[in-house]
Amino acid sequence: MNNIVSFFKLVRLKNLIIVALTQLIIKFSLINPFLDNFMLSNNQFYLLVLATIFITASGYIINDIYDVKTDIVNKEKDIIIGKSITSRNAITWYILFNVFGLGLGLYIAYIVQKPLYSLIFLYCIFSLWTYSKRMKTSFLFGNLQVSLLTALSLFNVALFDIIPNEITKNYAEMRVFKIIVFYAAFAFIITFIREIIKDLEDIKGDKKIQAKTLAITYGTEKTKWVSIIFTILTFLGIAYFQYFQYSKLSSEYDIPIWGANRVAMTYTIFIQFLFLFLGFKIYTSKLKNDFYFISQLCKIIMIVGILSIPLFTYLYQN
What we know:
mainly alpha, single chain, about 0% strand
């Protein structure tokens, strides 16, 4: 039983559930309700989700394999590799998950008749490996890499389920595609902020291995301000969407538009308050526990943001 719990911790089961639910929400709250000619059936889409989960889980495993030295300093109690699970078994699971993920990816690419799309899965595997081996300790590149992969997990839904149908010829498909891109950008930025904060949280162990993260290169205070700036930019971006909501609500034409109603606007204001709170917590943070709290807050904001998709769809349809 302990080995099973340790295995779920190793692959970050909670994070995997969030990734899977995000893709499922996009499929069943955006694509299926509004489009008729999507590429993947529900069962085929489940295979895309599984491919994503397998490759993501393998990324967590290889990250922990390479992170043993820093984890001894940053979070010794949470170390799994070498204690509950041997390095050899971890590598075996890493290889198996990548094989399963790549195999499913090749099949999905074959289904949509876009064989080159399978390179996306190869890129993800290679990118997660390079991140764990050397990019994680680099200046910003590791942060950007993880943020891009997070955004890609959302964008891939459109890539495989919408784009093969030549979306430029269909207004509805283009509208859904733009919404997915918007949420992918949201996921990129909030992940980027979270990764910077995690570097602050792990600064002690990163110094031990002579990492060159933003936190180490420029110090805690300047790194906090970088996070605050991106928080403000995200706040302003959402404010622009709120202006769109308000302009539609103020229009004399009573035409229903996805995401533009009073409840949706109230929900968006709530997200804005979360970003204000995030900025405040970053500004006042000093201790490792503060940075851990902010990291978890970023995750909560991500979930709240993604949950707006089914809410906005429900409000639009009712």
